[in-house]
Design a protein that fits this description.
339 residues, Aminopeptidase, 2 domains, 7-stranded mixed sheet, 4-stranded antiparallel sheet
Length: 339
């Protein structure tokens, strides 16, 4: 039975999360205190027991300079003894219909462990990062002051707000920035900043136990200066100068997603593009049809077809077909919020 959980289900949901993902008590407490929205969560229940679940949270996403109302999905899980029955697949399918019915969510996105599981939704990758493992980089000529910073330092948000404008597929954190910093605090992560005077030009947030950088953003020279202090592993912005890296570094896809409500998405986009296209959505049938890029349904023949995921790819700038080069541009697609 499909089931929308309540706050009384939190103990059961916490246990499922920890048994499957092995996260710390502190992180799980943070998630179910600050990120649990029952109306955006969904479960499968049998004999009074939750056997599969996923969790959503509203986060606006920036795509090629415009802000879209979105939901980030995390914690997709099924108890081991119920796997292989298509339960999570059905849960995801019905969840997309539920998000459409809400009426004011344009995009759903997530960071999958196994992208192949989600392809039946018509979703596609739409962001990238440079996966750097055990890398080194020479210190740039430009000099910055390197200093540990508290995760409550308001200058971190100023840095994020400034440099996130360079990327497509990134979350407009606003009030959520402090929520995310409390996530990192719950896991006892630490922050290094590259400063010019009192201004934070870049920052990197580290897990001292693993030595891995969990988040970084800022002026690229300033980021290079932070990482020049030693060997590092991080998911770097896609425009980071890889030619200066020594070690294992490659460009990888990160987040994946699709359009939930086609008309809302396209009306927000409102692009002066002369083509009509057929949107093929096998999950949310209401989305299927011929549109222009301003969200108007058309009776004219379509010039080409898109899935909900390839439409997201196009607008984010992740992939732009040659015939649409006059309407859309390839962008720096970078997502920091992975769950």
């Amino acid at each position: 039975m499909l089931y929308t959980p309540t706050f009384s289900d939190i103990p059961q949901l916490k246990k499922i999360w920890q048994d499957i993902f092995l996260d710390s008590d502190a992180f799980v407490d943070w998630f179910f205190t600050e990120r649990f929205d029952p109306s955006l969560s969904f479960c499968e229940k049998t004999d009074g027991k939750i056997i599969s679940c996923l969790h959503g949270y509203r986060l606006p996403i920036i795509l090629s300079g415009k802000e879209y109302p979105a939901v980030i999905i995390a914690g997709v899980s099924t108890l081991p003894q119920y796997r292989g029955m298509g339960i999570a697949k059905n849960l995801l399918k019905e969840y997309m219909k539920k998000m459409y019915s809400i009426g004011d969510i344009a995009v759903a996105f997530y960071t999958p462990v196994n992208p192949d599981i989600y392809k039946f939704l018509g979703h596609m990758p739409f962001s990238r990062a440079i996966k750097a493992e055990n890398c080194r980089i020479e210190k740039p000529k430009e000099i910055f002051d390197i200093s540990p910073l508290k995760l409550t330092d308001l200058r971190l948000y100023d840095c994020y707000k400034t440099y996130s404008k360079s990327y497509s597929g990134i979350v407009a954190r606003k009030d959520y920035f402090s929520v995310k910093m409390r996530d990192y605090s719950s896991s006892q992560l630490t922050c290094l900043g590259a400063l010019r005077g009192e201004k934070v030009m870049a920052y990197a947030i580290y897990n001292d136990k693993t030595g891995k950088c969990e988040e970084c953003i800022g002026d690229l020279s300033a980021l290079s200066y932070i990482f020049s202090t030693g060997t590092f592993s991080a998911m770097l912005p896609p425009d980071f100068p890889t030619e200066k890296l020594k070690g294992d570094a490659k460009l990888v896809s990160v987040s994946m997603g699709g359009v939930v409500n086609a008309q809302l998405f396209l009306k927000t986009l409102s692009a002066p593009c002369p083509f009509n296209f057929f949107l093929n959505d096998d999950i949310v049938k209401e989305n299927s049809g011929v549109y222009d890029f301003k969200g108007n349904k058309k009776k004219k023949p379509a010039d080409f077809s898109l899935s909900s995921g390839s439409l997201l790819q196009l607008v984010s700038g992740y992939f732009v077909p040659e015939k649409l080069n006059s309407c859309f541009e390839i962008g720096n697609c970078y997502t920091l919020d992975l769950y």
